[in-house]
Amino acid sequence: MNSRWIPVYSVTDEIKAQIIQQMLASYNIESIVVDKKDSVYVFIGDLEIHVTQDDALRARALIQKYAESGELF
């Protein structure tokens, strides 16, 4: 099993990142949020949601499904 973490989605809002994390957790997909925001200008940059390589395809599909349905935000 490969446990390499890869980005599957990025957002600018911490609350949206938490919503995505909770949605993925409900499908037993572990995720982490990597803060790529500038340390001086915190409004510049994104928060990346990372999952293991094994879960990446399923996570992307679930995020897309929920985003298209309007259930995420």
What does this structure look like?
- The protein is an alpha+beta fold and 73 residues long.
- It has one domain: Alpha-Beta Plaits (2-Layer Sandwich), CATH 3.30.70.
- The protein is 37% helix and 25% strand.
- The protein contains 2 helices and 3 strands.
- The longest helix has 14 residues.
- The model has no long low-confidence stretch (mean pLDDT 88).
How many beta-strand runs? 3
Order of helical and strand elements: EHEEH
Q: SS-based structural class?
A: alpha+beta
Distance between the termini: 33 Å
* Percent in strands: 15-25%
- The CATH class is Alpha Beta
Count of domains = 1
* Helicity range: 25-40%
Do you know the CATH topology? Alpha-Beta Plaits
Tally the helices.
Answer: 2
CATH superfamily: Hypothetical protein rpa1041
For the biggest sheet, the summary is: 3 strands, antiparallel
Q: State mean pLDDT (0 to 100 scale).
A: 88
Query: From the 3D coordinates, which CATH architecture would you assign?
Result: 2-Layer Sandwich
Indicate the low-confidence ranges by residue numbers: none
Shape field: globular
Gyration radius, rounded: 12 Å
Task: Name the strands of the widest sheet in spatial order.
Answer: 1-3-2
Features:
single chain; 73 residues; alpha+beta; Alpha-Beta Plaits; globular
Draw up the topology in text.
Blueprint lengths: L4 E7 L2 H13 L4 E5 L11 E6 L3 H14 L4
